[in-house]
Design goal:
- The protein is mainly β.
- The protein has one domain: DNA gyrase/topoisomerase IV, subunit A, C-terminal (Neuraminidase, 6 Propeller).
- Helix content is 2%, strand content 32%.
- It has a four-stranded antiparallel sheet with strand order 3-1-2-6, with no helix packed on it. Strands 7-4-5-10 form a four-stranded antiparallel sheet, with no helix packed on it.
- It is globular.
- The N and C termini lie far apart (43 Å).
């Protein structure tokens, strides 16, 4: 695929012409395309802008793309918002979208949908926040609710904090956490113990003026590659195996050298590291599985008991 300058392939799907792509947007809507509705092009073609294929509203942006072969009854979609709300809904509830999209969940004023994952009903979910907190809970703590429902509290946020990522965890993976000053660390998923939904969570990265706030959390494997981007357009490609695996409550190591005026704004997996999904995908399913010194800080005591989670599940 040919790309524009400073552009790159972020996601790669294996799909047949009758598979579905679900496009979830920041305003809580989902748009629906059959693969055959996407114009076929040559191997080196640039492709077509997705805004020409979907009826998006002004200011509506795609947050997540989920490939689906069938709307199976034993699969669920779990969603996370910027304000720490999570919602679990049966996949079959999204099987009949209308032109212009349908409501994926009801959002509070000022909230945004940031991530969506497909689950089997009993997997662990990981939430990471901008101020360096994280919470791992089993999805059975969030019962399935209706398509237009608001959802329930996934993690209770400190003032000014927000959720910046969600991952459906797989065994043997690591959590890559990257901060705006170019620091990052890789920590085994086993270091994050399962807690109850609705708590404040644990420290994931020791945020200091030196590191800056967290900009991204990703579930990664040793053979993955990532691309880190600064606000001035600098791009650096890294192998995950080259990032030292260290403890949970640390500042990490420097991944990219930035000037004092620069900030790191994004971290993504690039297409090649979807090779695991491509190799594992069968004809019956589409899978998206998707000073460098370690500084350890003393973690404040934090109750592991579940805080009040009697929040009401509201729906339209």
């Amino acid at each position: 695929m040919q790309t524009n300058e400073e552009d790159f392939v972020e996601q790669l799907f294996v799909a047949s012409t009758h598979d579905y792509l679900l496009f979830f947007t920041n305003i809580g809507k989902v748009h629906w395309l059959k693969v055959y509705e996407i114009p076929q092009a040559g191997r080196t073609a640039k492709g077509r802008a997705v805004v020409n294929l979907l009826q998006l509203q002004p200011g509506e942006k795609i947050s997540t793309v989920v490939p689906i072969r069938r709307f199976e009854v034993d699969r669920y979609l779990i969603m996370a918002t910027k304000s720490g709300i999570v919602k679990k809904t049966e996949l079959t509830a999204y099987g009949n979208p209308r032109q212009g999209g349908i409501i994926a969940l009801t959002l509070d004023d000022g909230d945004e949908l940031i991530s969506v994952g497909v689950t089997h009903g009993d997997q662990d979910i990981f939430l990471g926040t901008r101020q360096g907190y994280s919470l791992r809970f089993n999805e059975t703590d969030a019962r399935p609710i209706g398509r237009t429902a608001r959802g329930v509290i996934g993690i209770r946020l400190e003032e000014g904090d927000e959720v910046i990522g969600m991952e459906v965890l797989s065994s043997g993976s690591s959590i890559l956490t990257v901060s705006e000053s170019g620091y990052g660390k890789r920590t085994s998923e086993t270091e994050y113990r399962v807690q109850g939904r609705g708590g404040k969570g644990l420290i994931n990265l020791n945020v200091t003026p030196k590191t800056g706030l967290v900009v991204s959390i990703l579930q990664v494997f040793d053979d993955d590659d990532i691309m880190v981007m600064s606000d001035q357009g600098n791009l650096v490609r890294l192998q995950v195996a080259d990032i030292r695996r260290i403890g949970r409550n640390t500042q990490g190591v420097r991944l990219i050298n930035l000037t004092p005026e620069q900030r790191l704004v994004g971290v993504v997996r690039i297409a090649e590291d979807n090779a695991r999904s491509v190799a594992d995908a069968s004809s019956e399913a589409v899978v998206l599985d998707t000073d460098d010194e370690e500084i350890v800080a003393e973690e404040p005591e934090m109750s592991d008991e579940l805080e009040d989670t009697s929040d009401e599940e509201s729906s339209n």
